Structure formats: structure tokens, C-alpha cells
Amino acid sequence: MLTLPIKKKWFDMILSGEKTEEYRELKPYYASRFCNLFGFSKVINAFKNETEPRKIIFRNGYSNNSPSFIAECSLLVGEGRPEWGAEPNKEYYILKILDIALPVLWKYDEKLGIAYFCPHCGKFVCDDSDEKCEWCKKAIDWRNCDEYREYWRS
């Protein structure tokens, strides 16, 4: 599975549902990775039409312990939206985020008091100031959470 690093701003916007596309420059580095993932032998005209979806890991940072999620994405080439980080009138590889597949990796940092994902429902949460998740309404005892845990939503 392909893993792509992503800045926190875009990471948070995708998880909230506000951003539904991620962009990568038209460079050989991404061409080879996308051809391998989507099953094309050559780049020429490979991504003119939207591809079949594939799973991609998006990671906020470069460490294996950085917050991550898995998304079902299709790929095409086109112009992106400036409000989502694309330069106007420039073509990109566009990863259309069709579904955020939980499991997600969440991390609790005791020093910072931050939990990135609820251990019950896997939804993004900002901090540990609430004793209940705003999404699933389940109680969260942050003192008893494992430092790292993979959570698979059924």
C-alpha cells in the first residue's frame, strides 16, 4: 500500500470531510508510484480518466508513529482547487478521496494532552478536555489509553 505524507492542515480537512481531493505534482517520482499502485505500465494517457479506487495511507508526518488514516482513492490528472492547496491553472495528479476507511492509527501524547483519534469510533478529536467523544458520545478515559493502538472500525 502506498503511504503519502500530508501536512496537518490538509490532513485535518480531509478527516473532517471538508477536503475531498489531495494533489501531487506531475513528476516521475509520483508517476512511478501511481503506475505501480493503479496497475499501469506507462504513464502516457494512463490517468486521463478516473481510475478504479485503491487504498492509500495518508500520514501527517514522516514517522511510522505519526497520525495516519487509510482512504479509498481514485486518480486522475487535472487542475486542482486553490482553496485545497493547488496552484491556479496547473495540472496535478488528483487523488479523489472516496471513503476514509477506518482503521486509523491514533496516538495519545500525555505531555501534550492530545489524542488524535477516539479509541471507540476512530473519529478525529482535538484534545482530551472532554470526557466523552463528540462523535460517538462514549466516555474516554485518556489515562488508561495505550500510547499507540490500531483501531479497526467494524
Description of the molecule:
Mean pLDDT is 77; it is low at 146-154. It is built from two helices and seven strands. The longest helix is centred in the first third of the chain and has 11 residues, at 28-38. It is mainly β and 154 residues long. It has helices at 8-16, 28-38; strands spanning 2-5, 21-25, 54-59, 68-79, 91-109, 114-115, 148-151. A hairpin with an 8-residue loop joins strand 3 (54-59) and strand 4. Strands 1, 2, 3, 4, 5, 6 and 7 form a seven-stranded mixed sheet that branches. It has a domain at 2-104. Helices cover 13% and strands 34% of the residues.
Average pLDDT value?
Answer: 77
Compute the number of helices: 2
The end-to-end distance, rounded to whole angstroms, is 21 Å
- The general outline is elongated
Q: Share of helix among residues?
A: 10-25%
Topology as a string of helices (H) and strands (E): EHEHEEEEE
Strand elements, count: 7
SS-based class: mainly beta
In angstroms, what is the radius of gyration? 17 Å
Low-confidence stretches: 146-154
Task: Tell me what portion of residues adopts beta-strand conformation.
Answer: 25-35%
Q: What is the makeup of the main sheet? A: 7 strands, mixed
Short descriptors:
disordered C terminus; mainly beta; 154 residues; seven-stranded mixed sheet; single chain
What is the strand and helix layout of this fold?
Elements: E1 2-5, H1 8-16, E2 21-25, H2 28-38, E3 54-59, E4 68-79, E5 91-109, E6 114-115, E7 148-151
Parallel strand pairs: 1-3
Antiparallel strand pairs: 2-5, 3-4, 4-5, 5-6, 5-7
